[in-house]
């Protein structure tokens, strides 16, 4: 039995979310229609409101409703430290888990020549201007540990060195509580290469 047009439209809409396939989308659609129509209306209104009113911070490019986000506005932040991340979710994770008190620059992606994503597509031209015009002492590169993330980190390192800025890369390695026999070879290689004195 096929869905009615409106139900199929709702299922298809949920499929745009990462990791959501047709079965999961159908479950979500049915749940909202069967058990939580008020929740569906709230979800709909929240999505419309966010889509219409959330933009990018003029300085760091993260999501915000304001012209400049609260982190960039804060006088308590160390403006000489700049952490480069791939997404607003990465900045949020660092903010929640660490004591980092500097500023961020959100790339909204990573370099991927095979996909046609070059430096300007992820704001590296904007970052280069920022590195030239601001007094930044250290650039912390916190891109993902993927081939694209490493290529992006290497490119950013070059920009920092061109401007005489110290650049560091977040450590990669064995997760807390992890057992070596279950860690993949590349992660173990990074952990072993980045060992430090106790």
Range of strand content: 5-15%
- By DSSP (H or I, 4+ residues per run), the number of helices equals 8
How far is it from the N-terminal to the C-terminal residue, by CA?
64 Å
Task: Give the C-alpha Rg.
Answer: 21 Å
Q: Helical content, roughly?
A: 40-55%
Derived structural class: alpha/beta
Largest sheet: 4 strands, parallel
CATH topology grouping of the domain at 81-169: Dna Topoisomerase Vi A Subunit, Chain: A, domain 2
Give the low-pLDDT segments.
none
Structure description:
With 198 residues, the chain is an alpha/beta fold. Among the domains are: 5-53, Helicase, Ruva Protein, domain 3, CATH 1.10.8.420; 81-169, Dna Topoisomerase Vi A Subunit, Chain: A, domain 2. It contains eight helices and six strands, in the order αααββαβαβαβαβα. It has helices spanning 5-14, 22-35, 37-53, 70-73, 88-97, 124-133, 147-162, 185-193, and strands at residues 55-56, 63-64, 81-85, 103-106, 138-141, 166-169. The strands form two sheets. It has a four-stranded parallel β-sheet. The chain has a two-stranded antiparallel sheet with strand order 1-2. Strand 3 (81-85), helix 5 and strand 4 form a beta-alpha-beta unit. Helix 1 (5-14) crosses helix 2 (22-35) and helix 2 (22-35) crosses helix 3 (37-53). The chain is globular and about 65 Å long. The mean pLDDT is 91.
Quick description:
The protein has 198 residues and is an alpha/beta fold.
Q: What are the SSEs and their pairings?
A:
Layout: H1 5-14, H2 22-35, H3 37-53, E1 55-56, E2 63-64, H4 70-73, E3 81-85, H5 88-97, E4 103-106, H6 124-133, E5 138-141, H7 147-162, E6 166-169, H8 185-193
Parallel strand pairs: 3-4, 3-5, 5-6
Antiparallel strand pairs: 1-2
